[in-house]
Amino acid sequence: MRALNAIVLSCLTLLLLPTINATAASDDRAQVPFNADDSAAWDSPPHLDSTHHLIFNDVASLRQRLPNTIHLNGHSVVAVIVPTGTILYHGRGNDSAPTGSEWLAFDFEHSHQECWGPCYVISYVTTRELRLAYLDGVSAANLGSGTFDTQDILIWGKPRLDKVMEEEERIAGICEWGKKYDGLDGFVRMEFHFEVILCNFSSGSVEVVSLLNILPKDFSEFADPPEKLPPWRRPLPATAPPPGWKGSLPSAKSSDFEAMVAGSWQNRAPGETRMRVDYSSFVTFYDRTLTSLVAARRGVPRVKHRLINITASETARKLDELADVYGRAPGAGSGVDWGSVTHVVQQRYADRLALLRFLLAPTQVAAANATAHAALVRAQLLTMLAPYMTTDAVPAPGNASWAQRIVRLCATTHTARIRDAVLTPQERGIRNAVEGTAREICRQITLMWADAFDIEGAGEARQRAALLKWRGQVAELMAWLDWSVWAQCEPECRPDELCYVSTWPYIYVEDDPADMTPHCISRTKLHMQPWPS
Ligand SMILES: *[C@@H]1O[C@H](CO)[C@@H](O)[C@H](O)[C@H]1NC(C)=O
Ligand SMILES: *[C@@H]1O[C@H](CO)[C@@H](O)[C@H](O)[C@H]1NC(C)=O
Ligand SMILES: *[C@@H]1O[C@H](CO)[C@@H](O)[C@H](O)[C@H]1NC(C)=O
Ligand SMILES: *[C@@H]1O[C@H](CO)[C@@H](O)[C@H](O)[C@H]1NC(C)=O
Ligand SMILES: *[C@@H]1O[C@H](CO)[C@@H](O)[C@H](O)[C@H]1NC(C)=O
Could you give the 3-state DSSP secondary structure of residue 440? Predict the structure, then answer.
């Protein structure tokens, strides 16, 4: 939204990537659906340029704040529905309700944060379903480091560094793009909370519930005296409290922070339930056929993935895909709840992999009786593979067909019987990503199991060697999956603390854009960064 846009002017970080000259790999076998790919050996690792894990993560993270805060450069666009009867908020300095395009907040806190002088908060109710396109990542952060890449492609056909602060032009541009599609009412983006861009307040989709003159805020607690702040950051001349008011006014510092708190309510699944995701419309720039983006991702952490070097023809292909998706009648999808499918996979493996990592940590292993400890890990592997442990899945020397069977069953558990014909092309992409991700989980666990099978009767030297090898395999798998469910505050935060990861616009002393480790910060003692001079 507007009020905070300018705050980040000086925080504008340009993440520069190493130059990589490798040509894009042409071997795309790893992207072929597993159930159609009998040629891959059961133990062959995912293709180096596979994007299955990235797409899986995007789908599993839609409408959740924490994973999108960590993986801040979004690559995906998906249609969402905000149901009839949903209350949304808009805050401003006067009492005239918007008529054109404007921002709406899901919570009062986010709209209140928009008031800098006199404060009017208008609450709206949706009078019909709003159809919106949701851009993932921190897609409302005015950063030059990639948060706007997808949006810029819709608006200008390519990322535009010169437009990072141009919010008015941006909202006009994205609504102009959306106008082509019947029934597309606007967009959803995310900063420290989700926000709606409603392109036409006069289209009858929302109705004013109340327009309230809210108490003005007290700006005196900001770290810097107003004269030290740039003009756009200064509060308007203090607004007088209403006659008869006693004591302190609501603190502006706290109002800013509470917008962050309200956003954190949507940190984890199910996330922002006031929008329903239409997975059949999931369009992603992690599409592996966009070859111009492949080389620049190799060895580069996800936070630095960019779309800046996408070719014009591949951009055009993606815009055509978006036109297909938003041009077609609603209800094109299979009805499969892909978000739920990804969550089921995450739930089944996330804490078990974390348990293995814990058991295999150097301190745990060093203190343990190797025989007992190897047996303990073996039992956990058996638990994870239990659904596929048929009586003929007994490892035999020189014949890996038992492993092949386990991996196949395990990798296609959730997708084997979904008919290809009922899926949209976008859903096929998700299906492939789910299978590719599940296959890698199953492959690594089965590889560990091959060593664990007869470990109980082995000598201590082999047991110790196995524990060491498994530690490496679990670490490799967890790094590849890169699930945000493992990003937790440990130990848990107290009631007067918030579990926090560095969040744009990085106004607290605890913020470090280079470190996305969750940590507890005080909810009652807020430490704002002094304004950089
Ligand atoms: C984009 O291309 C330029 C010029 O070839 C190169 O320096 C840069 O590293 C590339 N960046 C990305 C993210 O692909
Ligand atoms: C009311 O505030 C909005 C948002 O700041 C602004 O665009 C509009 O011009 C203002 N209207 C009047 C009548 O002052
Ligand atoms: C907004 O919607 C109203 C009612 O459907 C319509 O008359 C008006 O032209 C629309 N405005 C724009 C800018 O599309
Ligand atoms: C280690 O554990 C095994 C299996 O539980 C047990 O038989 C053995 O006595 C233990 N060794 C030591 C040194 O405690
Ligand atoms: C491997 O085992 C499977 C059944 O367990 C059997 O059908 C297959 O013929 C065996 N392959 C070889 C090369 O022995």
Answer: helix
Which residue in 239, 258, 235 sits closest to 249, CA to CA? 239
350-389: per-residue pLDDT in tens?
999 999 999 999 999 999 999 999 999 999 999 999 999 9
**Ligand nearest to C-alpha 402:** 5
Mutate to test the pocket of ligand 1, among 14, 16, 17, 21 (most ligand atoms within 8 A of CB): 17
Partners of residue 211 on adjacent β-strands: 122
Secondary element (H or E) of residue 70? helix 65-70
What whole-number percentage of the chain has pLDDT above 70? 89
Give the residue extent of every domain in the chain.
55-327
What amino acid is encoded at 52 in this protein? Answer: H
Two tokens, residue 342 = 């990804």
- Provide the pairing of β-strand 87-92 with 119-126: antiparallel
Element (H, E) at 120: strand 119-126
Mutational test site, ligand 2, from 96, 103, 114, 213, max ligand atoms within 8 Å of CB? 96
CA of 157 from ligand 1 middle (Å) equals: 17
Q: Give the model's confidence band at 145: pLDDT under 50 very low, under 70 low, under 90 confident, else very high.
A: very high
Q: Which atom of ligand 2 lies at the shortest distance from residue 98's CA?
A: 3
Ligand number nearest CA of 392 is 5
Task: Tell me the two tokens of residue 127.
Answer: 């009078």
Q: Which amino acid is at 400?
A: A
Distance (Å, whole) CA 254 – CA 524: 8
Tokens of 416: 């084997």
Q: Is the pTM of this model over 0.90?
A: yes
Which amino acid is residue 289, in one-letter code? Answer: T
Q: Which numbered ligand comes closest to the C-alpha of 371?
A: 4
H-helix or E-strand spanning residue 481:
helix 460-481
- What is the rounded distance in angstroms from the CA atom of residue 481 to the CA atom of residue 64? 17
Residues with CB under 6 A from ligand 3: 200, 202-203
Contacts of 215 (CB under 8 A, 6+ apart): 119, 241, 242, 245, 249, 250
Residue with tokens 């905000």: 82
C-alpha 169 – ligand 2 centre gap (Å): 17
